User: Fold this.
Amino acid sequence: MEHSVVIIDALAEAFLAGEPGIDAMVDRAAVVLGRRWRWLQPLAARFAASTAGRTRPRHRDVVQFLRDDKRFRRARAEYSSELTVARRLIGPPRMQATRWAVPVIETGGDLADWLALTPGELDWFADLKALGYKRCAPLLRHYRYRVFDKGGGAIRLIESPKPRLKWIQQRVLANILDKIPAHPAAHGFVKRRSVRTFAAPHVGQRVVLRMDLRDFFPSIGGPRIQTLFRTMGYPESVADLLGGIATSATPRDIVRHPMYARPHLPQGAPTSPALANMCFYRTDCRLLGLAESAGARYTRYADDLAFSGGDDFDRRVERFAAHAAAILLEEGFAVHHRKTRIMRQGVRQHLAGVVTNRRLNLRRDDFDRLKATLTNCIRHGPASQNREGHPDFRAHLQGRVSYVESINPAKGKRLRAILERIAWGSSY
Assistant:
């Protein structure tokens, strides 16, 4: 039995050690076993077929395949006295070739050097053993936490990385994640896309369906992120470390909930939006295909999903919503059904705060509130209106006016004229 375990482990190493082609795997296996057995080619072909279209498997997954393969079991039994390990492959698995121009990082030491860390520091930041969750020493934690009550027993947890981890995550974002394009339907956290591009395809449609996802970021677990980095071509050990850097298990004294207790995407980390979009890529493909089959349009802004169409879509929109929810459930996401809205012409159709009935516009009450705030800044001073304590209230208001200008230039111009009349003191 022990001999069989050694054979399987060495053969798994050979299958993973380099390029995934059948001939390359057979060549490496022949070196490991010291002989080109006639059953190696069919075994490599069966393994390649079992992983076709999937991400690079883990070592344990290859071991399990070899244990379960009936023809390989017969070969081991038939040639047990001759089957030996001539040599073990030296060195870690190499990066697989990918279509993306991501940096080549093949070992944990390479990753530590790339991030200007020592190996010990890298292990501490990746925290693959979830020590930050098990221990309650606030000074040793990598995140700061803010919990907001959303009502009905629901919460929103903002997990903001401390400066050093934030720098590490920003480096991963700029040099790895930003090299991989988002799905065309994704408009949130994507360069040159915005709320405007998210809502614009749905202007003037007969019916608009809006769906909202429940717990979008924390529902994406650590294993899914590690799999994503393996898809980028990184060896298992490197993918696990990169996944650990980008995920977090929330300490028990902050939130006691199973979803947060496991490693998950933290809402507040620079890497989380891009990783969430990548994890949603296959779901975007399925939802886009479903929409096109129903004659509808589909866009997504983070956890807000929008579908729209004409009379044909109007007649089937309820059934369509059920099919879309089923796809989301199969992909590991849950719909917030109480926030699902079917908006037909004659009522206000709005997406992410933008009205889409005839043209893109702001909701009237949002525009009126901002106009009142700007006017009161002129009458009573900016300090009287900064009720939420924004550290740079002037920049905050400028950002809100710029947003209005991007949606409705005419209204934005009116607000800009009021903004320029505000007398800002030295503290602003």
User: Anything to note?
Assistant: The mean pLDDT is 90. The first helix runs from residue 2 to 16. The longest strand covers residues 143-151. The chain is about 50% helix and 10% strand.
